[in-house]
């Protein structure tokens, strides 16, 4: 829809002969610049190569795929700017869905009660990650790998123990389900096209995260702890509190994703979610977050998720040989990231 | 302090916000007990089952519940282990041999990796029965018999059924790249199906990805009139995807669960091909008992087929209770 004209303007921005210098300067200082150019390139590529890619219905599908990644990629990006990793995000989403479903079912409670309990449990997991990290000073890689493995086991073990099978029971006939489905998994009709409500959640999270990063004191703290936590502590930044907060932010998004999973499919498989954590991290990195912390943006992560969504669905629209699907996906992502890095280097040089 | 407050708050909220529909209470109302006593007084033999299942797989959960039920009836001590990686599955079989079990039930999803360890078990005098996959290798490795479904035959059954229903353009959705059984199923469909069959690979551990990929495929190819999913959890997602893409494509599926039965009932799922996992587990243990007790072997050692059984709308009412309790 409106993506093309604005994106094009940004695409031409690096050419300093055509645009005012001040505009270029401000564009170049943004971490998401490379990702936006990459997204435009991927978009144009698939528009040319896949004939049904440009239809609004297809765009809605692509946006849905992007949003399910993007909801998680945004807080993951914030965490990475703060200098930390989280490998437990993929299974945390599944845990969150399992908790709501099983609590509601076992207690025969209104599903909103389960949703509330799930929020508390998920935030507690995020808080646990943050506390363990700041108390033990172990690398986040080890802490969250531990959480990842524990959650994977808990998801399976507890579900089997409580439900008797490895997936949850259907809760679609329970009170509160229709309303909760409206909130987490409904479809909105816009210009005769149905859009998934997750897209709104995604955009909302991007807006909130951007506001926190650029307009609040907490935002400064995040950049500071990511740049160097000792220096940050020396100037009075509450390092531990910031990091715990970031992990809880990731948990909050995992809760939103988990509720979408539950209310869209109404039954949750306990083994799902493994491997998704890498996709969230990849989206953040494509969006311009540095693996070393201290640099990046929420908008960039959203654009990274969008590249991921476009690529994975674009390959289907282009009807490429399915045997090579994963190869194409990897190659496209690598190309988009390389283009991103190249643009940033050029921008920094000029 | 905080913990106690949270627990108190949660309990209060739970009591205040009860659902009068669905939930565990409804399940308990429906609950029917299956007997839990052994029917024979043979010695308590120890039988181990080692499969290639991943963690939390619905299908293998049902196989296990069949095996457990037979074990109770036959006074057998049932041991279970699984690993989706062939090398580690072989190690598990080895550890069962070390435990000196009286019988071994294994799957041969990756036959080459399992060959030496299965032969070792046979040499150690442990009777082996293979289930689910490895029909060709079973005899050759020295197993007594094979219980399962020929994947290609099951695929062919789907192709035939689609022809009967007038399908022209089908889409085979594979949820695990590189799974030989999945490829065989799709190839089987292709063999007998008179129309065109296309393949689509999706990421089975990521349900939103499955949905958006199938939607994308249906949007780009509106000739598709049938979506074939290879596992029960993916059928409902395919129905959703077709709905979202505004496509008239019907969904048919391999395997069964409660949602597929609902789908059969309301017509959103055309038919399901069941290989009866409960039967695979139950028969394996029961045949092992027969062999130990009486040196009997059903089918004279020829493969015992548990599928394909084609299930349609008329079977749905009867199946609903069984899927609910996790045995179909």
Automatic annotation (TrEMBL), chain A:
Q: Which GO terms describe its cellular component?
A: plasma membrane
Specify where it is mainly localized: membrane
Give the organism, scientific name.
Answer: Streptomyces armeniacus
User: Which PANTHER family does the annotation name?
Assistant: ABC TRANSPORTER PERMEASE PROTEIN YPHD-RELATED-RELATED, XYLOSE TRANSPORT SYSTEM PERMEASE PROTEIN XYLH
User: TM segments?
Assistant: 33-50, 62-80, 111-131, 138-158, 195-214, 244-262, 298-318, 324-343
* Gene Ontology molecular function: any one: transmembrane transporter activity
In terms of Pfam families, this protein maps to: BPD_transp_2 (PF02653)
Q: Tell me where in or outside the cell this protein is found.
A: Cell membrane
Name the chain's protein: Xylose transport system permease protein XylH
UniProtKB/TrEMBL annotation, chain B:
- Per its UniProt entry, which superkingdom is the organism in? Bacteria
**PANTHER family associated with the record:** ABC TRANSPORTER PERIPLASMIC-BINDING PROTEIN YPHF (PTHR30036:SF7), D-XYLOSE-BINDING PERIPLASMIC PROTEIN (PTHR30036)
Q: Where is this region: Disordered?
A: 19-38
The UniProt transmembrane annotation reads none
The record's InterPro entries line, in alphabetical order, gives: Bact_Solute-Bind_Prot2, Peripla_BP_I, SBP_2_dom
Query: What family is this?
Result: Belongs to the bacterial solute-binding protein 2 family.
- Provide the Gene Ontology terms for cellular component: outer membrane-bounded periplasmic space
Periplasmic binding protein domain spans which residues? 48-290
Name by which UniProt lists this protein? Sugar ABC transporter substrate-binding protein
Q: Name one Pfam family in it.
A: Peripla_BP_4
Location in the cell: Cell envelope
Q: Name one GO molecular function term.
A: carbohydrate binding
């Amino acid at each position: 829809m409106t993506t093309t004209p604005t994106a094009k303007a940004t695409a031409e921005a690096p050419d300093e002969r055509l645009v005012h210098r001040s505009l270029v300067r401000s564009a170049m200082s943004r971490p998401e610049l490379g990702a936006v150019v990459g997204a435009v390139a991927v978009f144009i590529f698939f528009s040319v190569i896949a004939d049904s890619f440009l239809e609004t219905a297809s765009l809605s599908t692509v946006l849905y795929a992007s949003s399910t990644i993007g909801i998680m990629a945004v807080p993951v990006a914030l965490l990475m700017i703060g200098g930390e990793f989280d490998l437990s995000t993929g299974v945390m989403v599944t845990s969150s869905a399992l908790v709501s479903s099983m609590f509601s079912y076992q207690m025969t409670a209104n599903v909103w009660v389960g949703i509330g309990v799930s929020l508390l449990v998920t935030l507690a997991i995020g808080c646990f990650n943050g506390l363990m990290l700041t108390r033990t000073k172990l690398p986040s890689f080890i802490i969250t790998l531990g959480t990842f493995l524990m959650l994977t086991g808990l998801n399976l073990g507890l579900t089997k123990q409580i439900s008797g099978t490895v997936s949850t029971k259907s809760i679609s006939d329970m009170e509160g389900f229709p309303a909760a489905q409206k909130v987490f998994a409904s479809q909105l009709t816009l210009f005769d096209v149905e859009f998934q409500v997750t897209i709104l959640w995604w955009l909302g999270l991007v807006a909130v995260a951007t506001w926190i990063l650029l307009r609040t004191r907490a935002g400064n703290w995040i950049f500071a702890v990511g740049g160097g936590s000792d220096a940050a502590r020396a100037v009075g930044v509450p390092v531990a509190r910031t990091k715990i907060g970031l992990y809880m932010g990731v948990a909050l998004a995992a809760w939103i994703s988990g509720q979408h999973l539950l209310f869209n499919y109404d039954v949750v498989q306990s083994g799902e979610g493994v491997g998704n954590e890498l996709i969230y991290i990849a989206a953040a990195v494509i969006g311009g977050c540095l693996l070393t912390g201290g640099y990046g943006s929420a908008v960039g992560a959203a654009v990274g998720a969008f590249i991921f969504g476009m690529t994975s669905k674009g390959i289907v629209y282009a009807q490429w040989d399915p045997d090579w699907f994963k190869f194409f996906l990897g190659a496209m992502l690598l190309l988009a990231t390389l283009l991103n890095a190249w643009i940033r280097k050029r921008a920094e040089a000029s | 302090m905080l913990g106690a407050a949270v627990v108190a708050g949660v309990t209060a909220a739970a009591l205040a916000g009860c659902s009068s529909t669905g939930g565990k209470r409804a399940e308990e109302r429906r609950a029917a007990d299956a007997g839990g006593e052994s029917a024979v007084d043979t010695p308590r033999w120890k039988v181990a089952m080692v499969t290639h299942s991943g963690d939390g797989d619905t299908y293998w959960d049902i196989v296990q519940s069949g095996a457990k039920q037979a074990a109770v009836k036959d006074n057998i001590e049932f041991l279970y282990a699984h690993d989706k990686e062939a090398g580690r599955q072989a190690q598990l079989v080895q550890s069962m041999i070390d435990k000196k079990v009286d019988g071994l039930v294994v799957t041969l999803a990756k036959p080459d990796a399992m060959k030496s360890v299965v032969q070792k078990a046979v040499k150690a005098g442990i009777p082996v029965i293979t289930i689910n996959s490895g029909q060709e290798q079973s005899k050759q490795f020295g197993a007594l018999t094979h219980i399962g479904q020929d994947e290609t035959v099951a695929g062919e059954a789907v192709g035939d059924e689609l022809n009967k229903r007038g399908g022209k353009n089908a889409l085979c959705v594979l949820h695990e790249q590189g799974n030989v059984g999945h490829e065989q199923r799709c190839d089987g469909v292709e063999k007998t199906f008179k129309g065109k069959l296309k393949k689509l690979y999706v990421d089975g551990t990521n349900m939103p990805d499955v949905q958006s990929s199938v939607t994308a495929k249906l949007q780009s190819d509106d000739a598709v009139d049938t979506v074939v999913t290879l596992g029960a959890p993916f059928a409902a997602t395919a129905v959703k995807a077709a709905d979202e893409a505004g496509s008239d494509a019907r969904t048919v599926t391999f395997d069964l669960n409660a949602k597929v039965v609902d789908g059969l009932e309301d017509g959103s799922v055309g038919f399901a091909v069941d290989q009866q996992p409960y039967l695979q587990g139950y028969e394996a243990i029961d045949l092992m008992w027969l062999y130990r007790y009486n040196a009997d072997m059903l089918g004279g050692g020829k493969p015992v087929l548990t599928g394909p059984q084609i299930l349609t709308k008329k079977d749905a009412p009867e199946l609903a209770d069984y899927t609910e309790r996790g045995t179909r």
